[in-house]
Each structure stands twice: as structure tokens, then as C-alpha cells.
Design brief:
The complex is a heterotrimer of chains A (about 325), B (about 290) and C (about 325). Chain A has about 325 residues and is of the alpha/beta class. In chain A, about 35% of the residues lie in helices and about 20% in strands. The chains are: A alpha/beta (about 325), B mainly alpha (about 290), C mainly alpha (about 325). At the B-C interface, helix 5, helix 6, helix 9, helix 10 and helix 11 of B face helix 1, helix 7, helix 8, helix 10 and helix 11 of C.
């Protein structure tokens, strides 16, 4: 891993949504950084704020009821928070790209896939129609869509789910972005297709030297693709560690439960333990540790005070937000 | 349209309606205006200043005055009184025909959805063809062939409104039919009719009310249009369409004769459209769910 | 595309059959005895027999049905009982007026309604949006003859900008246009109301779709997101409504033609009604049946052009 400055560094990001008259944070005080050629997986249940984090980076938080309230998103040294829309647009699809979860609905049904891939090249590289088409055709080959030339002028409905996701990937990679955000790119696909798309993503990431933020609710997928993992719960990062470390020593009770809930072929399904309760809605966050109401280890302090994300002594890049598993130094003084 | 979730219990339907009204001032304004018009129509025998058929040759085609607020027509009849009585006729014809269409359409839709297969296919195709007939042309044809009378007018209007209600009733029927608990209900000895009533009605009641109010507006429009053409209830009975016809024939002499009934029709149709539209905005999950 | 067009044409045949059957049922089965309807209650038995024979309603109902279908398709709609002229000729004489009127109204409705609907959707909950919504709801609350009378009062009688009788001569372009203006505006405004509403709600729905977010994530400029990515998808329901409205338009043109005293199918059908001209009435119904099928066909074909998914089905 290179030791130079991270391509993206997020500092204390707070993204809020308006519900029932008030603004409530969907992402609270999130910080992380990703190096070039590194993959960070953000893991959590739906509604934990992982997609909102990605949309905040893209500047695509719906302005009607959402906003980045505070914090910084430093991309290649430039703060994206507060950047005007036109500057942001120039970055999107060029230096930062995103792949979405639903390949069925994320492609425009009335435009050919070839056009949809070439479009980014047209806007960002100022290419003419013919030149953009030629580049798009190359991308077809790179994402391994068979008989690319014939399928170039086809429409999305003529593709299978897996093929559509390849089209999405080709679209996102058209301008060779430095950062790729992949929001549950394989969730909607069959298991075999999932594996193919994952290895394609890993391969292309290595070939392009991109940084990747891979968002998923499935820890099983994480092991095969990520270098580091950040586990999110109710808008906060509760644990972050290198992937091997996390699997070897899951420290936050939530991470532990998540790991246990991965279905495994070598185990009977009886062992599959769903986590009791539900993610709190953003309008009704519990005080103290947000996981406390569902936590089997809950103690009195948990519901009283917010835990901080603290480094475990060894190794230093493992951080946990839990009063019991990672008592912060401040705790004693409080 | 495809993502139709099933709900149960009549309380759900009521909640949905209550929420729809609260969310939307338009539906309130529409409802209050419409109810006010209904009240005026009901009270017509008590409040109308003259007999709607009383002619007074001395005051023909007069403009608004203290004695005749909205003026008089070419026979010297009081326009306000005729408007009030015309409202009764208009409301009765449209309400009866739409209720009939609701009932018949609802039964057809539920049967089609419940029986399924070829029957469903043929019936719904027929409904599509029926739907493609413009309601006014359909009304024109029916009344032209059957003759102009109040009953035929109702038949004509009901005929044009069956298809949309059949569609509304069919979709949830199919969903309900596929659920396991229907088997359970049958095993418990509930009749098909009861199953349908309990499980389907709560799902479509809101949509039926929306469609009902919008189609009531259409029915009033068609009735007035046919009366205007001369295919409505025969004169001298006061109908809004007929009054406008008379006003139109005397348009160079008196504008008020056509303007007041025109405004009356516009007001009632607009109020019903506001009601139906407001409700739909609030109920339609596609429009509600977005930001 | 050609295959799609052929398929649609073939599919139009059963629709035509169904629509004509409805017309047959209305014309022959429902009213009992058309001869009685035409001649009235005082007609002699002999006159009734003659009339039945002349109309061909003395044959068995099955034979009548076959005759009816064949004649309808062949354009042999009989002669008017009043003028004695072939019904086809009567229709042909007034058809240009009705076509002028409907086509102009559609164009007017689309030209006003589509941009207004898009604008209203993009400025959701702004005053533009509220005005457009209330205005369009009001517009479609107007029975066509009510709006026609109000237009007539204002612009022909009070202001005298346009003729009271809109029977412009077809060979004089200026006259033709002047007499078209008010009737076309009348129908065009109502049409615009429908189009505005459906364009607005359809655009709102489309703008919330995932693929719009994808387009923005690609860095496509807002203008292109709206017009290239959203608009074409948003147009699909608009086509449905325009198709449906064409039917309503045919009905409304009857009322408009009466108010503006303009020749056309509507005037023809009303005078046939008043004179109990049974053959003309029946011929008119066949005309409307063809019109309905044609409108459905056009709507389907337009889908084929806009939505690539349709062609494949």
C-alpha cells in the first residue's frame, strides 16, 4: 500500500434529512480515508447511513429534504463540501464514479447501453460521437460483455441482470476515475453472477489503481474484496479495522453479531442468529450508545453516555466505539 | 400500479382517507363546495324563490335584478329557481348512474379476477374496448338509439363508467386470490362472497372514492352535454344543459341566461375534480413517496 | 420496427370487429324497431314493413350482422333518408372541417401542455406549479360547450375579433384559419389541461427514478438529464393520455361544432338525430368506430417509437 496522501479523506461528516419537520442526522460524525489502490468496505444493515455517505461524497443527496450539514470531504486535497454544482458535476463520472445497487432500474430504458456508456466520455473528455463510441466499445470488452459489437446498440431490457451490472461498471469506469463508489453492486444478482462481478471489480480496480469504497450489508462479500472494513450502525462508524484483523478479532458486539449472521454452508441454518430488534429510525435515536437497545451486553453506562471511537492499543489501526469492549480513557474521568 | 400492497380491516381504509384529507387542502375545499351544492339542491323546494316552471311573459330575458337574482329566461322563468331544481336532476342522474356503474363494474372486476383464465381475458378485453369509446360519443349513441329520457340517460352514462371500476376491482382480487389465507378462510367455511367482501373492499375503497368523485364529475358533464344537444330530459323540466341551450339560442339578447348555468356546472364539476384529485394525490404512493 | 407496425395493424382488426359489434348492438338490438323510431307512432303497418325492408332489418339478426360488418368495411353505408345522398359523401364533405379542428387542437394542446407540465414538475411546489395545477384542473372541469359559449361571448360577440359562425371556406386559407381559431382554442385549452397534468405527474415520477440518479452520477449536465434522460421516459404516459383524449376530443368536437356553428361530423350527427335519419346515424357510428380504432393504432405505434421495450413484446 502506498504511503502518500489518501485520495479521499472524510472528516466528521454529518448528513441530515428532514423528517416530520426537523432535521435529523442520517450520518453522524463519520471520518475515514482511502488510499489509492485500496478498497474500503462499509458494512451495515439497510438504513445505517452507508449509502447516504456515498451520496454525500457524490454530492447527490436530494436537496429537497437532505443536506450535508457539516464536516469535510477532501478529494485529492480539495474539499467537496460546499463546492458548486457545476464543479461537482465535472468531478462526477470523471474522477469519482458510482455504481448502484439495482441494475434493473439504474439504466435508462429508452437509451442504448452503448450511448449510456459513451455519454460520460462525451461530457468529460469532449469526445465526438464516433470517438466516444469506439472507447465505449473497448470498455465493453474490458467488462467482458460477449459479442460487444452486436450488443452495443441494444437496450437495457435486452440484458440480463449480471450483464446490466457490467454495463453499469463500464459506465462508471469510462473516464478512469480515481475513486469508485460501489453501493451494493452485487446484492441484486444471483450468487454465481455475484462472484463474477466481484472478481471483475477487483481486477479492474487493480488495473486502474483506483481507490474503491465498497458498500454492502453482507460481510461474506467483504472478505473477498476489501482491504479495510468500516462497520456502520445508525449513522456512525462503530468499528473499523483491516479486513483480516476484523474477521480475526471482531470487537464491537454489533460486528460480532453481524459475523455470526453470515450464512455458511458448513453450518446448520439453526446457528444463523438474526440480531433482535430493529435499526432505530433517524427521528428517534436512543441516547448513549445507539446499539445499546439491541446489545446483549448492555450496561448502565451504555444508555447514559455516547461512546467514542477509540483505537485499540494493538494494532493501532483497529478502532471501536464501545464502552465495554474498548473503554476510552475519558470514561474514567466522566 | 404493479406494486399493490394488500391491507386489511376497514380501519385501514378510514385511516388512509383521514390522512388524505389532512394532507391536502384541495380535497377539503372540493368536498365542502360539493356538499354545499348538494345541500342547495336538496333544499330547492324550500329556498327557490319561484316555481321553476312558472312563466311570466312580462319579464322575459331580463338581467339580474332584486326580484330575479340571476335574471329570467325567454319564457320569463326565474333562472335561479331553475338552477336549483336543475341541480337536483343533474345530481340524481349522475349519482344513480355512477353508483350503478360502480356496482356492475365492481362485480365484473371481482368475477374476472376471481375466476381468471379465459373468462378474465375476454371480459377485460371487452372492458378495454368499452373504455376506448369516448363517454360522450357512447352516451350520444345510446340515447340516440333508445330515445331521450331520464332512464336512458342513466343507462348511457353508467355504460361508459363500468370499465374503469371493473379495472379497480380486479387488481386486488387477483392478489387476494393468490394468498394462502384465502384457502384457510375457505377451510373455515367462509363463503367466497364474504371472503371477497372482507379482503377486497378495504383495499379498493379509497381508490373507488377517488374514481367515484372524478367520474361523478364526468357524469355531470355528460348529462349536461347531452341535454345541451337536446338528448336530455325533455323541456320544460329544468336541466342545466337545457338551460344553457336556451341561453345559447338567445345569446345575442341575454348573456346571463347562458352564463349562470355555465358557472353552476363549472363549479360542481370543479369541486368534484378538486376532491378526487386531492384524494388521489394523497393516496397514490408514487406521488406521496417521493421527496 | 416494420414487424411491429404489421403486428399492430393485424391486432387492430379484432379491435375493429369488437367496436363495430358494439355499434351493431346499439343500432339494431337495443332500440327495438328502428322503423318505428323513424316513422313515429302513427305510421301504418305497410309503411313500417316498407321501411324495415329498406333498412334491411327484416332479415334474421345473424344475416343482418354479417351485412352490417361487410357494408361497414366496404364503405357502403346507404343513403341518407332525408337528403337521399350517400352517407359516405355526406361524411366526406364535412370531414376536412373536423380534421382541421381536431389536429389543430391536439397540436395546440401539446405545445402548451407539455412544456407547462415539465416546468411545473421541475418547480414542484412553487407558485408556478400551484398555478399550473389549479389552472389545469379548472381547464378539464369545463364541459366543452360551456367553454365554447364563454369564448363565443367574449371574442365573437363582445370583442368581435372572430366570426360568430365559424364555417370558413376551405379554399380561402385566411378565412379557414379565422374560423378555426376559436373552436381550436376551445378544444386546445381543454386538451392542454389534460396534457399538463399527465406530463407533470409523469415527469415527477421519472425524475425520482434510479436511472436519473445514474445519469447525474455520470456528470451529465442538468439540462441533458431533464430532456434526454427524463423527458423521453416521461412522454410514455403522455402518449396514452393524448390517445385517450383524442376520443374525448371527438366527443367534444361535436359540442364545439354546435356552439360555433361549424360544419363537421358533430353537426352532421346532431342534425341526423333531429331528423331521425337512421342511416346517417348508423354511418356516423361506423365512422366513430373507425376513428376509435385508428386512434388506438396511432397510440400503439407511437409507443413503438418512444419505448424500445414495446417493440420486443
Amino acid at each position: 500500500m502506498t504511503a502518500d496522501a489518501p485520495i479521499i479523506a472524510i472528516e466528521n461528516l454529518v448528513t441530515e434529512f428532514r423528517t416530520g419537520g426537523g432535521w435529523h442526522p442520517a450520518v453522524r460524525d463519520v471520518s475515514f480515508a482511502v488510499q489509492r489502490n485500496e478498497t474500503l468496505a462499509i458494512v451495515g444493515e439497510s438504513g445505517c447511513g452507508k449509502s447516504v455517505t456515498a451520496l454525500s461524497i457524490m454530492g447527490l443527496v436530494p436537496p429537497a429534504n437532505g443536506r450535508v450539514a457539516s464536516g469535510h470531504i477532501r478529494f485529492a486535497g480539495r474539499d467537496l463540501v460546499g463546492l458548486d454544482e457545476e464543479e461537482m458535476r465535472k468531478l462526477r463520472g470523471d474522477r469519482i464514479s458510482m455504481i448502484f445497487q439495482e441494475p434493473m432500474t439504474s439504466l435508462n430504458p429508452v437509451l442504448t447501453v452503448g450511448f449510456q456508456i459513451a455519454e460520460a466520455l462525451h461530457y468529460h473528455r469532449d469526445m465526438g460521437r464516433r470517438e466516444a463510441d469506439a472507447s465505449a466499445l473497448e470498455l465493453f470488452d474490458q467488462v467482458k460483455i460477449p459479442s460487444a459489437r452486436q450488443r452495443f446498440a441494444d437496450y437495457p431490457h435486452q440484458f440480463s441482470g449480471g450483464m446490466r451490472q457490467r454495463v453499469m461498471i463500464a459506465m462508471a469506469l469510462a473516464c478512469r476515475p480515481e475513486l469508485l463508489l460501489a453501493d451494493e453492486p452485487t446484492t441484486a444478482l444471483d450468487v454465481t453472477i455475484q462472484a463474477q462481478v466481484l472478481s471483475l471489480l477487483a481486477e479492474l480496480k487493480a488495473a486502474y489503481g483506483m481507490a474503491m469504497i465498497f458498500i454492502t450489508h453482507n460481510l461474506g462479500v467483504v472478505a473477498s474484496i476489501a482491504d479495510r472494513v468500516a462497520v456502520m450502525y445508525a449513522g456512525e462508524i462503530v468499528e473499523t479495522a483491516p479486513v483480516n484483523e476484523l474477521f480475526a478479532r471482531p470487537t464491537h458486539p454489533y460486528t460480532e453479531l453481524l459475523l455470526r449472521s453470515i450464512p455458511r454452508v458448513d453450518r446448520d441454518t439453526v446457528g444463523l442468529s438474526a440480531i433482535a430488534g430493529q435499526v432505530p429510525s433517524i427521528g428517534a435515536m436512543p441516547s448513549g450508545c445507539r446499539f445499546a437497545p439491541r446489545c446483549p451486553l448492555r450496561e448502565e453506562i451504555c444508555t447514559r453516555r455516547d461512546p467514542l471511537l477509540v483505537k485499540l492499543s494493538d494494532p493501532g489501526d483497529h478502532q471501536v466505539r464501545c464502552w465495554l469492549r474498548a473503554p476510552s480513557s475519558e470514561a474514567g474521568h466522566g | 400500479m404493479s406494486t399493490l400492497a394488500l391491507r386489511h380491516g376497514s380501519s385501514y381504509a378510514l385511516q388512509q382517507l383521514a390522512r388524505a384529507f389532512n394532507a391536502n387542502a384541495t380535497s377539503w375545499i372540493g368536498l365542502v363546495t360539493f356538499l354545499a351544492i348538494v345541500a342547495l339542491a336538496l333544499l330547492a323546494p324550500l329556498i327557490s324563490p319561484y316555481d321553476p316552471l312558472d312563466q311570466d311573459i312580462l319579464v322575459r330575458l331580463e338581467g339580474p335584478s332584486a326580484a330575479h337574482w340571476f335574471g329570467t329566461d325567454s319564457y320569463g322563468r326565474d333562472i335561479l329557481s331553475r338552477l336549483l331544481w336543475g341541480a337536483r336532476l343533474s345530481l340524481v342522474i349522475s349519482t344513480v348512474s355512477i353508483l350503478t356503474a360502480m356496482l356492475i363494474g365492481g362485480i365484473i372486476g371481482i368475477l374476472a379476477g376471481y375466476i381468471g383464465g379465459r373468462f378474465d381475458m375476454i371480459v377485460m378485453q371487452a372492458m378495454d374496448v368499452l373504455l376506448s369509446f369516448p363517454s360522450l360519443i357512447m352516451g350520444l349513441m345510446v340515447v340516440a338509439m333508445l330515445g331521450a329520457s331520464m332512464g336512458n340517460l342513466m343507462i348511457a352514462i353508467a355504460l361508459t363508467a363500468i370499465a374503469p371500476f371493473a379495472r379497480i376491482a380486479r387488481a386486488p382480487t387477483i392478489l387476494v386470490k393468490e394468498r394462502d389465507y384465502i384457502e384457510a378462510c375457505r377451510a373455515l367455511g367462509y363463503s367466497d362472497l364474504r371472503i371477497m367482501a372482507v379482503h377486497i373492499l378495504p383495499n379498493i375503497i379509497a381508490e373507488i372514492l377517488v374514481m367515484g368523485s372524478l367520474w361523478l364529475a364526468t357524469a355531470i358533464r355528460i348529462e349536461a352535454s347531452l341535454s345541451f344537444i337536446g338528448l336530455g330530459v325533455r323541456p320544460p323540466t329544468a336541466t342545466w344543459g337545457g338551460m344553457i341551450r336556451e341561453g345559447f339560442e338567445n345569446i345575442l339578447d341575454s348573456a346571463s341566461l347562458s352564463v349562470f348555468p355555465s358557472l353552476a356546472i363549472l363549479l360542481v364539476v370543479f369541486s368534484l375534480n378538486m376532491l378526487g384529485d386531492g384524494l388521489r394525490d394523497a393516496i397514490d404512493p408514487k406521488l406521496r413517496g417521493g421527496e | 420496427m416494420l414487424g411491429y407496425i404489421l403486428k399492430r395493424l393485424l391486432l387492430a382488426i379484432p379491435t375493429l370487429l369488437a367496436v363495430l359489434t358494439i355499434v351493431f348492438v346499439l343500432a339494431r338490438v337495443l332500440p327495438g324497431d328502428p322503423a318505428q323510431t323513424i316513422l313515429g307512432d302513427q305510421a301504418s303497418q305497410e309503411a313500417l314493413e316498407n321501411m324495415r325492408h329498406r333498412l334491411g332489418v327484416d332479415k334474421p339478426i345473424g344475416a343482418q350482422y354479417v351485412d352490417f360488418l361487410l357494408n361497414a368495411v366496404r364503405g357502403e353505408w346507404g343513403n341518407s333518408l332525408v337528403t337521399g345522398k350517400p352517407v359516405v359523401e355526406e361524411v366526406r364533405n364535412v370531414l376536412p372541417y373536423t380534421i382541421d379542428l381536431t389536429v389543430t387542437s391536439i397540436v395546440l394542446g401539446a405545445v402548451i401542455g407539455v412544456p407547462l407540465g415539465v416546468w411545473s414538475a421541475l418547480r414542484r411546489n412553487s407558485w408556478v406549479d400551484y398555478l399550473a395545477r389549479i389552472g389545469s384542473l379548472l381547464g378539464l372541469s369545463f364541459p366543452a360547450f360551456v367553454s365554447a359559449i364563454l369564448l363565443l361571448l367574449a371574442f365573437a360577440i363582445q370583442l368581435r375579433w372572430f366570426p360568430v359562425i365559424s364555417a370558413g371556406r376551405l379554399d380561402d386559407p385566411l378565412d379557414r384559419l379565422r374560423s378555426l381559431a376559436l373552436p381550436a382554442v376551445n378544444l386546445g385549452i381543454i386538451m392542454a389541461a389534460y396534457v399538463t397534468r399527465v406530463t407533470r405527474s409523469s415527469m415527477l415520477e421519472v425524475l425520482g427514478e434510479d436511472y436519473i440518479r445514474t445519469a447525474r452520477a455520470k456528470g451529465v449536465p442538468t439540462r441533458a438529464v431533464i430532456w434526454r434522460h427524463a423527458f423521453r421516459n416521461g412522454l410514455i404516459p403522455v402518449v396514452t393520455v393524448v390517445g385517450l383524449y383524442l376520443g374525448i376530443l371527438i366527443g367534444n368536437s361535436v359540442l364545439t361544432e354546435i356552439v360555433f356553428n361549424r360544419p363537421g361530423l358533430g353537426k352532421l350527427i346532431v342534425s341526423a338525430l333531429n331528423q331521425r335519419d337512421y342511416t346517417v346515424l348508423q354511418g356516423m357510428m361506423v365512422v366513430y368506430a373507425f376513428a376509435i380504432v385508428l386512434v388506438n393504432l396511432l397510440t400503439d405505434l407511437t409507443y413503438g417509437f418512444i419505448d424500445p421495450r414495446v417493440k420486443r413484446q
